[in-house]
Amino acid sequence: MEVAKKKNRLLRKQKPFLKPSSCISKKRFRSDMSSKILREALIQQKEIEDEARKEDPFSSIPEIGVSDDDSDFDDEYVDSLDAGFVPETDEIQDYNDYEVEMEMLEQFESSMLLSERIVNKIEKAEKVSAEQKPQMDNRLVDIYKGIGEYLSRYTSGKLPKAFLSLPSKPYWEDALYLTEPKKWSAYAMWQATNIFASNMSPKRAQRFYSSVLLRRVREDIRKNKRLHFDLYRALKKSVYKPQAFNKGILFPLCKNLDYISGTCTLREAVIIGSIIQKVSIPADHSSAALMQLAEIEYCGTTSYFIKLLLDKKYALPYRALDAVVAHFMRFVEDSRVMPVIWHQSLLTLVQRNKYELTKEDKENIERLIQHQKHHMVTEDIRRELQNSRNRGEKKDPTFIPSSYHQKPIEEDRFNYPIVPMEEE
């Protein structure tokens, strides 16, 4: 048994007494690093304490420690220390005032509305952009003045490259002013509208329409009692940007913002209205135009434009439809005798949207036509209201409007028409 035990002991692997050199080096490395970290931490802590001691006005006063064993403490010594110490109250007060002011400033900044901050930033950006606005040198001024002279007699051919690239320039308005658009030929105005409507954003195109195109169109109508064909084509091209057309041409006409005349004349409304009839305008832009026209102060031409937009037979959103109904309901208690175009536009509203009107809307319109009557139009409006279902109601298959009822055909059997027969 003893021999077997000795054999097993010999077969077992003897573990080395010393650890490998790598483990020892790692341990030394870790101990060296930890000592360095501790040393740096102590240095930083000492620096922080020194800075705090410098900022603290009471740091120069030595601390008086009282031990539990020292029962015979000299109170007179403490009184003498208190009598000899004079605190620097002014510096402390100034320091506290500064902290209070900073806290109040932070509270004020946090309480400012986000909109105020945005407005302030926009104003600063506008000031910076106004200061950094690119200035045209004398050479460009001479070039665009020469282009203006060329456009005043332009009838065909190519346009100058400087004019073709004008929509992309930041100084396009100044350059356009130098070309004197009042003196352009009608063909040049059409070509310019074609370029600006195709290459400009709606906002820039709107400014071109209102400041150049609309003024030229109204002036030509006022002088010649008609509109030049090329200017008419320019107006048709302007609808390529429907948003700019509404804001730059249609709304200024109805709002009386143009300098040529105080109001939109009937001739101007008929000419520009013919473009609205002929050119397709997206439904959303037509709805937005209807809402805006419904809020404008009433004018006869306003009713004419409302009638034209309603005649496009678009499925109007309820918001636009309610705005138009509210526009007509403003005349319930009006003492004026409304013109025929007003009654026609109301009839068009009822004819095109009678199934989308609520029961309350129809009752209000019924009350309106009792006050504002026309001997030829009012009966048609009442018939359309009575023979239509309300908004949200399902279609009744058995319902037949009274307007569709026809009289039975009466024939005279003794007076038939002669029927030609073929010859044998």
From TrEMBL:
One record GO biological process: rRNA processing
Record-level GO cellular component terms: cytoplasm; nucleolus; preribosome, small subunit precursor
UniProt-listed InterPro entries: Bystin
One annotated GO molecular function: snoRNA binding
Residue ranges, annotated region (Disordered): 46-70
Highest taxon above the source species: Eukaryota
PANTHER family registered for this protein in UniProt: BYSTIN
Official protein name in the record: Bystin
